[in-house]
Amino acid sequence: MSDFTVELKIAEKGEVRTVREEAVRYLGYGKRSLDEFTEKMTADCEKELLEAVNARCCYARTKIEFPRNNVVDIGFGEIESHDLFTHLQGCYGAILFAATIGIGVDRLIAKYSRIFPAKSVIIDALASSAIEYWCDKAETEITKNIEKHCSRFSAGYGDFPLSFQKDFVNCLDMTRKLGVTLSDSLLMTPTKSVTAVIGLGAESRTCDNKCMRCTNKHCIYRST
What we know:
Helix content: 25-40%
CATH topology: NADH Oxidase
CATH class: Alpha Beta
Strand order of the largest sheet: 1-2-6-9
Oligomer: single chain
Number of domains: 1
């Protein structure tokens, strides 16, 4: 296993936003507009959510090796994954990346699940859009001086085993730097947290549509 130099970025107040269109899609509305009552409730939920956000991310550069077909080493041992192998072809290195919007968001969702379940569902959807916004923003800043890079690819995508979440948590020191822990079932707390690998290299691709990377063609949240 490689030694990693981990860098930390903390969001300033107001730096993280929700993406209303994405949240509405997560709620199952598709392209339909919200009714007036739900629109107002969503606006109220958004305000509360953003007050609870404590966003931060950490990341480290690493080399990539391709010891054999469909096997990749991104610094913490060999990973057998056709999808990750294909995604990182042509890359000379990678960024190991992790981000969260904080435990306060989980507490807010839990509070409303007891006293106002509809608000809990809306806040959860808005929070999902907020973590994606924060990941996109942080990734853009981290890679701003890099000519080309692949889009984020997370453990659990395709055949990239979710078990490698443990390696992200350990290598990026996520518990100390982000306050993120991992359960025995490989679920992260805070729940609105993300780990990913970003491939670097002149021959790599950039894919802007996350749904196009996913093999679940029947997902109700799919945008394409």
